[in-house]
Amino acid sequence: MLGWYPEHDLPGGPLYSAQSAAFTVIKSNHYVNWMAFGTEFCAPSARAQQPDQAWQSEVRKYSDCRDWDDALRIVDQQIARSPGDLDIRAWRAQVLTWAGRLPEAGREFKEILKIETGNPDYWMGLATVYLHQGLTEEALKTADHAIELDPNRADLRATRAQIFHANTNSGEARVESLRALGLDPSSAEARSAASAISGGRKEELRFGFDQDVFSFTPANRDQWVSLVSKWTPRWTTSGAVSLYERGGINARNFVGSITRKQPLWGALTIGGATGHDNGVIPETGAFFELDHGFKIAGIGIPLPGF
To answer: What is the pLDDT of residues 26-55, one digit of tens each?
Structure first.
């Protein structure tokens, strides 16, 4: 089994281990958030006369710092020394996956599978690439190949459960996560998958009250209650009822919306509103929103004293 590094993921998930020193600027709409992760200085260690597994630690460390060039450089050095070692090539494909270079990672895994089709880790690596590309059907078929080769691996079952979950097949996802836990209750992958999947449908109920006081006219008051329901990882609905008081005149309306999330293009929301306006609020309305996150910059910053 390959030494995959499960702490890594692509943008939108836990991309960096909590022990890397990095600052990321994320800009969404009209605000900017700075996020800092951990306190470990990202510096290379001495590599002279390294034992066979030391290079893997170096790759992980550079990957924590998002220094993909150096991570790939180390892997390429190992490939040059052992060109026939497919596990090292699979490490290269995994680093490309962590770096978000999904087409290259997919090609690398496919080239490996042309030579060796009996290793379930290679198939699951390709399935993970498909999943991050939003190709859930291809991901599921590829994961099936991996499980056919080793049906008693809890980590493979857990990954398959996550693919089902991403494909909004919650029933199969729960079954597969329970199988993973049954095979190995101590598996971190199995526990993580079961925890994510067991959340299921979620509701969020909110109440609100606003009041604006004026010296020259009666106060304006707004009261509202909303319910947001997350039915699946991709589908969310929202409904809200609002009561308004404007200059002593009462009005009320209802606003409803539905949101679809997709890994590649983000989230699309459409909705509308209607109510008794009494001339102080819009009688009807419609809206849509396209939300897509993107990374402005991300750099590793050495911290003093490490």
So the answer is: 223 332 332 333 333 344 443 333 444 788
Q: How far is CA 50 from the centre of its chain?
A: 34
DSSP, res 82: -
Query: Closest Cα to residue 2, out of 166, 122, 175?
Result: 122
Residue 61 lies in a domain: yes
CA atoms within 13 A on the CB side of 146: 24
Tokens for 186? Answer: 């101590």
Residue with tokens 């960096």, as numbered in its chain: 16
Distant-in-sequence, close-in-space partners of 78: CB < 8 Å, separation ≥ 6: 55, 85, 88, 91
pLDDT of residue 19: 31
pTM for this structure? 0.54
- Band of the pLDDT at 162, cuts 50, 70, 90? confident
Same domain, 115 and 217: no
Q: What 3-state DSSP class applies to 30?
A: coil
Q: How confident is the model at residue 123 (pLDDT cuts 50, 70, 90)?
A: very high
Range of the domain at 135: 22-150
Same domain, 209 and 139: no
192 lies in some domain: no
Tokens of 217: 């006219």
Q: Cα torsion at 179, 152, 13, 117 (round to 10°)?
A: -140
Q: How confident is the model at residue 126 (pLDDT cuts 50, 70, 90)?
A: very high
Is 89 a domain residue? yes
DSSP string covering 195-216? HHHHT-SEEEEEEEEEEE--SS
